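A further point concerns the way the authors explain their paired sequence and structure data. Showing the layout once, in full, would remove most of the difficulty. For illustration, here is how one protein appears when written out as sequence plus structure tokens:
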Amino acid sequence: MSFPAQPLAEALSQPLAQSPVQPLAQNLVQSVDWLAIAPPTITAVVGLVVLVTDLFVKDARTSLLGWISVAGLAASALMLLPLVNDGRSTFCLTGEPGTCSYTADTFTLAIQFLVLGGALLTALLSVTAVKDADRGLPEGEYWFLLLSSAAGAALLPASRDLATLIVALEVASLPAFALVGLRQGDRRSSEAALKFFLSSVTATAVGLMGISFVYATTGTLHLTQVADRIQYVDGQLTTLAQTGVVLTLVGFAFKTAAVPFHFWVPDTYVGAPLPIAAYLSVVGKAVGFSGLILVTVVALPSYADVWGPALAVLAALTMTVGNVGALRQRATRAYSAVRLLAWSSVGQAGYLLVPIAAAAYSDDPERSIGSTVAYALMYGAVNLGAFAVAALVGRRRSLNRVADYRGLYAANPLTALLLAFFLLCLAGLPPGIIGLFAKVTVFSAAVDAGLGWLAVVMTVNVVIALYYYLQWTALLFRSPEDAAVGHRVPAPLTAALAVTAVLAVALSGAPQLILRFTDTGLF
């Protein structure tokens, strides 16, 4: 075999500067905006510091690890302040500065505030829980896993490509499996971790299959490019693209605990350490819903006719099943207080799905998504407050039944008043004004999008929820069955209760602090 000599000679004589290798190398060079990525980075670094410190700290001083974790999460949350109204992006494609893998816009900062604030309150609850466990929870591993999960959860809302999105989702989820099953010798904890693990792994597998189909049909992982290219998929690949969209939605529906993918929630919350149940109820939901928003509204707006009706049906089913499940809890059943909060969180997930579904029909999808963000911020503050009270009561009443809260006002008036306020916020009744405003915002998003039937379903479910929230609230002020004994509130629990109470009261007095997030900056 012979080759033409002249073309080969011409190729060898070309200057090195014209080689295609050099532009490729330039494309691989990235400048990193360290300020933009500071919140998740600091959280991850502090997690490593805690893990290494655990090797050298004596057993008598392991409580230091908890306070290092609290300080690290507080520092991460404070690093959000320089990013407000800045709109930073990093890890962008060369020549396409608008196509980036990490963006710190208003949506990102709001969810990161929820995630890091929720993780910080969880850490405060955990300081007491780990101490009460009396070595039942290995401290070094506990704090490292919590910080690792929080770092992944903080990364996820900033992700603007599907690869980063999935990596962040799994970094948030994998440590959570271990946290749920970390209690040594506890059968319920192991069973809860197994159910959580199997459901989450199934969700990830289905979601990854869908994302691979989307990538195969569009040739890109960046969300904005997926949005542009998936509209013009070759006819032979249309079925593959549609299948990818459906599988991706199913995967994220698992992560949000939407019905019928909710079955793991009650048992997982009961089997997990109580601070981790609180973490999953708030931060876990923030992870699932922010990922769902990015995939649907940002990456797949052209398939709104597919995911819009699907999410509307899921919202109706989720809020109904969740509220009916909470209504059926018996006050004398073991762990009924935690189970009620678990089923309530499923019902609240239904409300959070409503504005996302409405975004498919709305002329202003950004405002609809903002309603979900505002509701999530309200829910996070008051639900963590309710779990803080449950953690306090659970220190004396290990079975944590709803009946154990009878006469709480006689034993600890301030704690009872706080729990009543948190429950009224969740119900959307005065003086829990922020809960009322958040529900009205979600309701108006459905009405404005023409989803009147969904607004009716939501109204019925709000009435159902009123019954069990008010029933629990009334129980707090009834005469106790035995002599009232005051609760000694440890300092970390006091701090968690104080922070959640201040947030709930402040937001009820000035709901515009949350409602301003209806402008998310996603578009």
